[in-house]
Amino acid sequence: MEASIRSVEYDRPHGLTCGVGEAWAKVPDAPSVERKRELKEQIRALLKREKAVLVAHYYVDAELQELADETGGCVADSLEMARFGRDHAADTLVVAGVRFMGETAKILSPEKRVLMPDLDATCSLDLGCPADEFSAFCDAHPDRTVVVYANTSAAVKARADWMVTSSIGLEIVADLHARGEKILWAPDRHLGGYIQKKTGADMLLWQGSCLVHDEFKGIELDLLRAQYPDAKILVHPESPEAVVALADVVGSTTQLIDAAVRLDAKRFIVATDLGILHKMRLAAPGKTFIEAPTAGNSATCKSCAHCPWMAMNGLANLAEVLERGHNEIFVDPEIGARARLPIDRMLDFAARHKKRVQASGDLAKDGALFSNVGAA
Ligand code: 13P
Ligand code: SF4
């Protein structure tokens, strides 16, 4: 395999982007109990007034997840968020998540108004893959099929043949590999490495990473496993190889929640953003969830298993954005139309894949779910 790779530091804010320090500084303080109640009332009324629906990711605050659920919105992984926003009849989508999720919603529904509580909520993978540098990388490898992760800008998607999320990336790359295609993958090196290993595909990897998952430590996880030998280990594939190697299940956020419900274990160690624990506890009551370790003794971390950009979504800025209609996502129509092609390809593939799985009745083939269960 070629050794040539490209990497861009995500922690260096460039242009108008919001780096890790700025993100933590913008995380809103938790309102008082009384203020929370008022804000929730206000948001419910505003969603109705604006004919809007709330589309939230599992990593945002539990209060926002609850509001999305109770008002007919959705709480989901990035693939389901994209599908839900596209198919919903609402005039306005309010995306509680990070910028690439809002952009994907706008690309799929250019006629809808897409709002976000804070437009500075970005992602280290998106920041680490600037469109101009990525485009030059693609130009240098014209023989490769370009597959990008959802966690990228609209301009990067516009340069791609395929977009994938963590719930369907493995299947799509396996299919491309079976057709003899060589892959240029960006930006997450851990997810790319995991897919490469599972499929045997020829993949050239951009060297980006998620600052949350990159901090999980294999050695510390192994020690925790020894402490709880009965626990099953659930890992998001943005985590380093040493962490994935210890997993019982590797999968997208939805697939990890499904595993927590379906697996016959009482205790789970979870290596992904701790925002997911809210849904896991609701979906699997009576089971115990333990956060995977992010650092060794006396070490520091930038995220401590919580994404600072996801944390920028709060009740107050959600109410404000609905009231004032500001923080609208715009995508250049030409870029949007081009970026839609790889997204539609993925959604079509995912729909065909789901039908095949349902017809076979083999849930083990449902995405990456249970992919490591029973592995040596
Ligand atoms: P999912 O597609 O699994 O929801 O992941 C999105 C993400 O940003 C994970 O860090
Ligand atoms: Fe990006 Fe990681 Fe935050 Fe997900 S958790 S939005 S991949 S930085």
UniProtKB/TrEMBL annotation:
<feature type="binding site">
    <location>
        <position position="210"/>
    </location>
    <ligand>
        <name>[4Fe-4S] cluster</name>
    </ligand>
</feature>
<comment type="pathway">
    <text>Cofactor biosynthesis; NAD(+) biosynthesis; quinolinate from iminoaspartate: step 1/1.</text>
</comment>
<keyword id="KW-0004">4Fe-4S</keyword>
<keyword id="KW-0411">Iron-sulfur</keyword>
<dbReference type="InterPro" id="IPR003473">
    <property type="entry name" value="NadA"/>
</dbReference>
<comment type="function">
    <text>Catalyzes the condensation of iminoaspartate with dihydroxyacetone phosphate to form quinolinate.</text>
</comment>
<keyword id="KW-0479">Metal-binding</keyword>
<dbReference type="GO" id="GO:0034628">
    <property type="term" value="P:'de novo' NAD+ biosynthetic process from L-aspartate"/>
</dbReference>
<dbReference type="InterPro" id="IPR023513">
    <property type="entry name" value="Quinolinate_synth_A_type1"/>
</dbReference>
<feature type="binding site">
    <location>
        <position position="57"/>
    </location>
    <ligand>
        <name>iminosuccinate</name>
    </ligand>
</feature>
<protein>
    <recommendedName>
        <fullName>Quinolinate synthase</fullName>
        <ecNumber>2.5.1.72</ecNumber>
    </recommendedName>
</protein>
<keyword id="KW-0662">Pyridine nucleotide biosynthesis</keyword>
<feature type="binding site">
    <location>
        <position position="307"/>
    </location>
    <ligand>
        <name>[4Fe-4S] cluster</name>
    </ligand>
</feature>
<feature type="binding site">
    <location>
        <position position="123"/>
    </location>
    <ligand>
        <name>[4Fe-4S] cluster</name>
    </ligand>
</feature>
<keyword id="KW-0808">Transferase</keyword>
<feature type="binding site">
    <location>
        <position position="78"/>
    </location>
    <ligand>
        <name>iminosuccinate</name>
    </ligand>
</feature>
<dbReference type="Pfam" id="PF02445">
    <property type="entry name" value="NadA"/>
</dbReference>
<dbReference type="GO" id="GO:0008987">
    <property type="term" value="F:quinolinate synthetase A activity"/>
</dbReference>
<keyword id="KW-0408">Iron</keyword>
<feature type="binding site">
    <location>
        <position position="166"/>
    </location>
    <ligand>
        <name>iminosuccinate</name>
    </ligand>
</feature>
<dbReference type="InterPro" id="IPR036094">
    <property type="entry name" value="NadA_sf"/>
</dbReference>
<feature type="binding site">
    <location>
        <position position="253"/>
    </location>
    <ligand>
        <name>iminosuccinate</name>
    </ligand>
</feature>
<feature type="binding site">
    <location>
        <begin position="149"/>
        <end position="151"/>
    </location>
    <ligand>
        <name>iminosuccinate</name>
    </ligand>
</feature>
<dbReference type="GO" id="GO:0051539">
    <property type="term" value="F:4 iron, 4 sulfur cluster binding"/>
</dbReference>
<dbReference type="GO" id="GO:0005829">
    <property type="term" value="C:cytosol"/>
</dbReference>
<feature type="binding site">
    <location>
        <begin position="236"/>
        <end position="238"/>
    </location>
    <ligand>
        <name>iminosuccinate</name>
    </ligand>
</feature>
<comment type="similarity">
    <text>Belongs to the quinolinate synthase family. Type 1 subfamily.</text>
</comment>
<dbReference type="GO" id="GO:0046872">
    <property type="term" value="F:metal ion binding"/>
</dbReference>
<keyword id="KW-0963">Cytoplasm</keyword>
